[in-house]
Sequence to fold (896 residues):
Amino acid sequence: MDRNNDVIMSSQLYSILVTTVIGIGILSMPRALAENVGPDSLIVLVLGSVLFLIIALLIQRLVTKFPNKTIIEMSANVLFKPMGTIIGFGYFLHLLISTVLVVRAFGEITKNFLLLNTPIEVIIISFLITVVYSVRSGIESIARLAVIILPMSIFPALFVMLVAIPDLDFTYFLPILKTPLPKIIKTVPQIFFSFIGFEIILQLGFFVKDRKNIKKAAIKSILFISSVYFVFTAITIARFGIAETKILTWPVVTLFKSVDVPGTLLENVEAVIMATWLLSIFMSVAVSYYVATFLLSRILKSKEHNYLALFILPLVYILSLIPKNIVEVYEFLDKFANIVSITMIFIIPIFLLFISFLKRKSKKGMKRNG
Amino acid sequence: MNYYEKLFNTQEDTQNKINMAKGLEENLKRLKEMLSNCDDIIYREFNVGKDQKLKFATVYAEGLADKIIVNEYVLKNLMILARITEPEVNSIREKVYGLIKDGVLSVSDLKEIDDLNEVVNNVLSGETVLLFDKWDKAIVIASKGWPMRGISEPETDTVIRGSREGFTETLRVNTALVRRRIRDSKFKIKQMRIGRRSKTDVAVLFIDGIVNQDILKTVVYRLKSIEIDGILESGYIEQLIEDNWRSPFPQVQSTERPEKVAAALYEGKVAIIVDNTPFALILPTTFNALIQATEDYNERVLITSIIRFLRYTAMLISVILPALYVAMLAFHPGMIPTELALYIAGNRDGVPFPAVIEALIMEGALELLREAGIRLPGPIGATIGIIGGLVLGQAAVDAGIVSSLMIIVVAITAISSYSNPNYSFAISFRMLRFTYIMAAGFLGLYGLMLAILITLIHLCNLKSFGIPYLSPFIYYTSLKDFKDTFIRVPLHKMKGRPQFIAKEDKDRLMNKFSRDNLKRGEDNNG
Fold:
């Protein structure tokens, strides 16, 4: 089958995208929504998802337009040579920082819900070593892992959500559309933050074998992700109400905690769900880590990303321990999401697409004239 | 030379050729030199013809060659019958050797060779070699016939419903057992010799037109590159050609059952049968293939689907149950229902060790018992099981060294691990269990998840002869390949061969067959 160690199928790309995007973001998302737009959370969520779908289609257009090119060559091609390295480095930093933040947030969650007495350093370092092991085994292995992990991580959580259904009160979502419009517009980037990770398609498109299906994979993954987000947010807010959701750090985790699965052997399933959710967070980190090392190896023009993965490990570890507490992590995440991610996901790809479009047009025009 | 002959052709056969001399004395002298101090080689010189002018000699290895064939059909024909018929001397003078070959020896399998090295090889593999005076060729008479074990029921892959035949130690018998299940001219058996000294016969079995050529090429290439003095068991070959020796998981399936080999060949896989061992190798192997038991296809579909599901669950239990128990006791006691938690606490009262140590002790003791049970002869082995399991376990609980709940956990684990149909697969899980327990002891549920993740990453990385080990779970491309995984769909729904292996001739069951047709036939009859 795929003997070459650098080829993935578009169906595997779909799994990678879903497992990468779904991760840490959703755990706090209902809080952010409830804080900002209250009862209109779901409407804003749908709005944000639709907007993001449009962005995703644009990004995807860029990927299919430049076959067998990473973002470095794309931007070098569209703009000029040093720009490729600069933009590539920008993406590297962006991925590195988002990896660091996710790792830290993950460490905090694990410490809070699974291992109360274990130092966070132990949790982070053991997690990172596993990530590096996965990164070193290559993209094909990561792709296969994503396909297996997707059902393993999402379905237990969804199952627990189902159990919570009898206690739901959907009147919390009333009245509809009472939030002022500027607030809604301000909240949409918050939703974009939850889609961070999607920009890896810019790099992973490079590996896909059946390129014509990339579009389908992109659309399918966005639809799946947003429906998972929708279900999670709807059930969390309907269970706790707006006022309570606002004050919970990770409302979704609290939801897992509050659910009593009837007739099971275990009393508190939240530890099990958190353990399976760990798989999803692992994928987010592993993929962005992989893409970061891949970009770095491209910038440095070295063929082996294996050693680079080890080289970055201490950096990620030290950076992840810098924030003093989880509040700082989330403050930084918000700023980061607002400025950097929007640039990386939204502005740069569309700018590149626009320029390449203009270039092609002018070329055509020149041909016609000449 | 056709494709397969080229593929299997080895250069060295023709390299160290020693041409035979014309004189019988000379040839015998050289043979005796080459086989000096081999007292099991029998040389018999005799004269043929009415006037006893033609000098012949037979050479064979005692114990390997069937003496009856040599005596009755070679020596008797040449020495006595040839004299009685008194052929016209003049008419046969020129073609005496041809005549002997075609008209005298009443043996079905003959071949002519002119290489002294080949003579030695043939003698040592049990054939009888007939040497002539004044001729530089020898005739090899197939006379392999050593005492061998009869075909009996395999010990490892036992079934309730299914064939009772198992492979034996003789290659020819084994290939015949498979041939009986695939009477197709496309079913090929290519033989090669591996081992500088042992010169073990190794047969590569495949069905032309179904087999995945990439896999076959890899297999033959790897087999050819083996340079070793002796192959004693197929395990040698397995370890020399497998992809990753560090992996705890077997990447080659070994079986004693001919129908399992036949089924694998029908799926487009390749089988290797090695002389002197009843264990054939099937490759490539996937994770899923190792969970399938022979019987799954012989019994009716509903029950086998349930059993298949049960087996997957048992596999999961056999790996993670003790680790899960340790993690819950040590790190997440809140997960256990209150009443049970109180009971466990009471039960563990006075146990001096933490749960991890307790689990490791008990699992270690269990492995010890298992090993002792295998090494001891049959009836005593069973006794060890009873003494170890019942007496020791009960005594340990009474003494307060381990809690009785831990005994239950360990026992469930052991039973689950026995339900795995493949022995080498089951032992790899036994190995993993210990690392999982330790991971759970250090970092609780989180550690267990990390250990599972590392195993998963490793499994995703693993390939068996170019086929990803976790096929078909790692693709979404088609649901067809999932028909024989967690459940087994009815045979009439399994129309194709596994897509990740078979590249040509993908249909097993022709589209003509459908259940409706069966019913229609019924109507016609009625």
